[in-house]
Amino acid sequence: AQKVTQAQTEISVVEKEDVTLDCVYETRDTTYYLFWYKQPPSGELVFLIRRNSFDEQNEISGRYSWNFQKSTSSFNFTITASQVVDSAVYFCALRGANTGNQFYFGTGTSLTVIP
Amino acid sequence: DGGITQSPKYLFRKEGQNVTLSCEQNLNHDAMYWYRQDPGQGLRLIYYSQIVNDFQKGDIAEGYSVSREKKESFPLTVTSAQKNPTAFYLCASTPPFLGGHQPQHFGDGTRLSIL
């Protein structure tokens, strides 16, 4: 079975604080792909990052960083020095190599950054 | 610019009426998807299509129908059998499945309401 869990439904932080969004996944595939998307109030989903199951190297892109740990089946996303423009719903998604073109999304985490 | 175009942005349905949501892409992607998003919830898969003239039901296909007569187009019809159609509908696409690492690209969505 393929499943993605984002246990944090809503998070509020004050501007400039750091915040981590959690993502835990389940899959029987040995090869799989993990994604993070951002959904601003306008509605469209914007792709942020992809990680392959055979690449556990963490990644940093500006104020964003991602921590992929296969041992705990987690792919967490940290925003450093948060800004009001970071306010959005963030989705974690999974795609297994053996499940063809299907993607499995978590329920999303709504982040509000308070000025 | 390449992308996915969904229309209309807002749509209102009368009781007993079928309505069709348009999704067009010029990315030359093979796979296309329809998701439904309810307030505060994640994305639920309605239908997806991997090639022309072929499509599969997702988790919540009842009350919906699709067609894939052209690679570029994947319209979704919300039938009168769908008793609770009020939601935000997102169309997505992906390139050919060459290892699974390709993310989905999303349209801007259509908000459907009942009159």
Kindly estimate the percentage of residues of chain B that lie in beta strands according to DSSP.
Answer: over 45%
Show unreliable segments of chain A: none
Number of strands of chain A: 12
Estimate the helix proportion of chain A, in percent: under 10%
Overall 3D shape of chain B: globular
Number of helices of chain A: 0
What composes the largest sheet of chain A? Answer: 6 strands, mixed
Q: For the CA atoms, what is the radius of gyration of chain A?
A: 14 Å
List keywords for this structure.
heterodimer, A: 115 residues, mainly beta, six-stranded mixed sheet, four-stranded antiparallel sheet, globular, B: 115 residues, seven-stranded mixed sheet, 11 strands, 0% helix, 49% strand
What does this protein structure show overall?
The complex is a heterodimer of chains A (115) and B (115). Chain A is an all-beta fold and 115 residues long. Chain A has no helices and twelve strands. Chain A has strands spanning 3-5, 10-14, 19-21, 24-26, 32-39, 46-52, 59-61, 64-69, 74-79, 88-96, 104-105, 109-114. In chain A, strand 8 and strand 9 (74-79) form a beta hairpin. In chain A, 34% of the residues are buried. Chain B is 0% helix and 49% strand. In chain B, strands 2, 4, 5, 6, 9, 10 and 11 form a seven-stranded mixed sheet that branches. Classes of the chains: A mainly beta (115), B mainly beta (115).
